[in-house]
Specification:
This protein is α/β, with parallel strands linked by helices and 526 residues long. The chain contains 11 helices and 17 strands. Strand 4, helix 7 and strand 5 form a beta-alpha-beta unit.
Length: 526
């Protein structure tokens, strides 16, 4: 009776702990963080790194996995990437603007959200802003009565996609740009319009581009003030790139790091970008190859800093340019290239933001639609069936109540298996009644417990001939290995057929969590 009661109490404690985590995340304004300093040993730094957790808004953002970036505006009609701000609004006149068509194309690829360039560097606004005439209100499109931002937001809601916007702080048209206090107030007013007039906003995307104003002075942005406006009107929206919630991966090639940590060391105690590092908030060097290893953490701890939860986003265009150019209709990225990008980003603990620019009709070009459809068919064909769910799963050691091993394929990334105590190496075995054929594996951590796994190996067993033995003997063959996992790690390899597969977690900052494990077959690569 006492043992049963103890198990019951342990289960209640686990449930209470999980519930507290969820309540805390809803209430937390940002992911948790912890200070580090020169007196911290490597062991202490490791424990501190594990203690850093994401906010509720960061978890919701990570679950989106794959979104569309939409560069659309005056540049679409002048065949340029960056306008000067002197272009006439009359040039903006899409003949068949149809955001519903965009949403259908994005959903076909498996995207879960859309971010529209509401205003690029040329200052032209896709909504009728009260604070400038340089907008759709001065264009012939719909006789100046149109609102492209509204149409995109409504199409997203109707199609079940999240909606966010990009608003360029650099404005080459606005006369107050360079008069920092005046322009910052102007920018906050435009930001407020977008945050209050278009329903729920899931993401606000800022870049760090800036220049001189008409007065010859470099604009100084009021980043804390900008962020406060977002938090005031859309507290669940993540603020990305120049913001405290999501960082830039450091390139526009669609490439994540070999080891992408969401827990990273910040060299300053404030979140704001420095003048000499506009793309790196909190003193972080966005393009550094090593951002979150224990060595990188130790380097920051020597002079003092903090550890923050700061996940990465990969932004890349389906074409060479970000805006539509007719000359690039034949240069849409190949299916293989898009798959490489997907596995490197979504499969490498980052979110993928794939830019797909509408043409001068206001439609996603047929070539882009075709490629997005092909991509979605391959991804759906690969991930529709988790083969590991057919297996008997085994883990060494006693049961850890509340974190049972069957939770690694229950389809819920917020439940997980966790071993009951610290082990040098953690092993999960998957035994099938018949051989399974697969060439993709997936591992997910439950990031509500932080990011822990540093190295893993996936192996398949070959059964040896009996040779008089009473029991079967196996030789384990390595299929693949990797480093960090985080929210999701996908690995590809030549197709394997096996009845017994194991996952070995060979290095972890604390007891690892495995929220989901999957084996899949990409039929195009078998």
């Amino acid at each position: 009776m006492g043992r049963v009661l103890s198990i019951f109490v342990i289960a209640l404690m686990a449930l209470s702990f999980t519930a507290c985590l969820r309540r805390g995340d809803r209430l937390t304004e940002k992911g948790s963080q912890v200070s580090v300093g020169p007196s911290d040993s490597r062991q202490v730094l490791e424990r501190k790194a594990v203690s850093v957790r994401p906010s509720g808004r960061q978890i919701a953002w990570q679950k989106l996995e794959f979104q569309a970036f939409v560069h659309f505006g005056l540049n679409t009609f002048i065949d340029r990437e960056w306008g000067t701000g002197q272009e006439e609004p009359a040039l903006f006149d899409p003949s068949d603007l149809d955001p519903d068509q965009w949403v259908r194309a994005f959903k076909a690829a498996g995207m879960k959200g859309v971010i529209i360039t509401a205003k690029h560097h040329d200052g032209f606004c896709l909504w009728p802003s009260r604070y400038t005439a340089h907008s759709v209100a001065s264009s012939p499109w719909k006789n100046g009565k149109g609102d492209a931002v509204k149409e995109v937001a409504e199409a997203c809601r109707k199609g079940g996609l999240k909606f966010g916007f990009y608003l360029s702080p650099w404005d080459r048209h606005e006369p107050s740009y360079g008069d920092s206090p005046r322009y910052n107030e102007f920018f906050k007013n435009q930001l407020s319009e977008l945050l209050t007039g278009y329903g729920e906003i899931s993401e606000v995307w800022f870049d760090g581009a800036r220049g001189e104003g008409p007065n010859g002075k470099i604009q100084v942005y009021d980043w804390p003030g900008f962020w406060q406006v977002v938090r005031r009107y859309q507290p669940q929206a993540v603020i990305s790139i120049i913001g405290p919630d999501v960082r830039w991966v450091g390139n526009e090639a669609g490439r994540g790091r070999r080891s992408e940590w969401s827990v990273v060391p910040a060299t300053r105690m404030d979140d704001f970008p420095a003048a000499d590092n506009p793309q790196g908030a909190a003193g972080l060097k966005a393009q550094a190859e090593d951002i979150g290893s224990l060595e990188a953490i130790e380097a920051v701890a020597k002079t003092g800093g903090r550890l923050i939860w700061y996940p990465a986003q990969v932004d890349v265009s389906i074409r060479p340019g970000w805006f539509y150019h007719g000359s690039e209709d034949g240069r849409v990225k190949s299916l293989d290239r898009l798959l490489d990008i997907y596995y490197s980003s979504v499969g490498g603990n980052t979110q993928l933001l794939l830019n797909v620019p509408p043409d001068q009709r206001g439609l996603i070009h047929e070539n882009d639609v075709r490629r997005l459809t092909e991509l979605g068919l391959v991804l759906n064909g690969t991930f529709a069936v988790n083969l590991s769910a057919r297996a008997e799963i085994r883990a060494a050691g006693r049961v850890n109540h509340g974190f049972e091993v069957h939770k690694v394929f229950d389809g819920d990334p917020e439940t997980c298996w966790m071993p009951p105590k610290e082990e040098e190496e953690t092993v999960l075995e998957f035994l099938f009644s018949e051989p399974v054929f697969f060439n993709v594996a997936m591992i997910q951590e439950n990031i509500r417990f932080g990011q822990r796994i540093e190295e893993f190996i996936i192996e398949a067993a070959t059964c040896l001939p009996a040779s008089g033995r009473e029991t079967e003997a196996y030789v384990w063959n390595e299929i693949s290995r990797g480093t960090t996992v985080g929210y999701k790690r996908l690995v590809r390899f030549p197709a394997v057929s096996a009845k017994l597969i194991r996952l070995r977690i060979t290095d972890s900052r604390s007891r690892p969590t495995v929220a989901e494990f999957g084996l899949f077959l990409d039929p195009e690569r078998r």
